[in-house]
Write a structure and sequence with these properties.
The protein is an alpha+beta fold. It has a domain of 105 residues. It is 25% helix and 34% strand. It has a five-stranded antiparallel β-sheet. A hairpin with a 2-residue loop joins strand 1 and strand 2. Helix 2 packs across helix 3. The two termini are 35 Å apart.
């Protein structure tokens, strides 16, 4: 029982310290990565950790595409071949509260005997990748996959969470 309480407290402490992936170049596998494929084509990827929701991952990818567009002297961009991957793993906790002493997991563990209850919690991480085409001039009004880079930066900018100085 003490071990279960200790594990629960440790998980609560870790959850309180955790935060969604910041908008930053990939560190520890999380963040954005870009690769220039042609003069006006990039592949952009954003990978979020297990507490970064899918809409945030997608917005960060769009924001990075807008930044690349403006940094290279272009005005708008189109998203091509966008793909989102979800990886899921499961975290298991075991409960043997209320069991009489002979049936508890100590000093022996009855893994296959059914003397405990297992609870599984899914942990999901999202990664979005897209080919981004950069263009000059006015964004075509009839293209649903085209974005004005300045508009994207202006509208998404206030929602972008960057790490504080010195934060990994």
């Amino acid at each position: 029982m003490c071990r279960t309480i200790l594990v629960s407290l440790l998980l609560a402490l870790l959850a309180a310290c955790g935060h969604p992936t910041f908008y930053q170049p990939a560190t520890g596998g999380y963040g954005f990565v870009e690769q220039r494929l042609e003069a006006n084509r990039y592949r952009v990827t954003f990978r979020g950790n297990s507490i970064t929701p899918l809409p945030v991952v997608e917005n960060y990818l769009l924001y990075r595409a807008a930044e690349i567009t403006l940094q290279n002297g272009f005005d708008y961009f189109e998203i091509a071949d966008k793909k989102t991957d979800k990886s899921t793993r499961y975290f298991a906790t075991y409960d043997d509260f209320g069991r009489p002493y002979p049936f508890r997991r100590f000093p022996y563990r009855y893994y296959d005997s059914g003397f405990y209850t297992a609870n599984y919690r899914p942990i999901e991480e999202f990664t979005t990748t897209a080919n981004v085409l950069l263009f000059r001039g006015r964004k075509p009004a009839d293209r649903a996959d085209a974005y004005d880079a300045r508009d994207v930066v202006q509208r998404l900018g206030p929602t972008i969470r960057r790490p504080a100085a010195g934060t990994p």
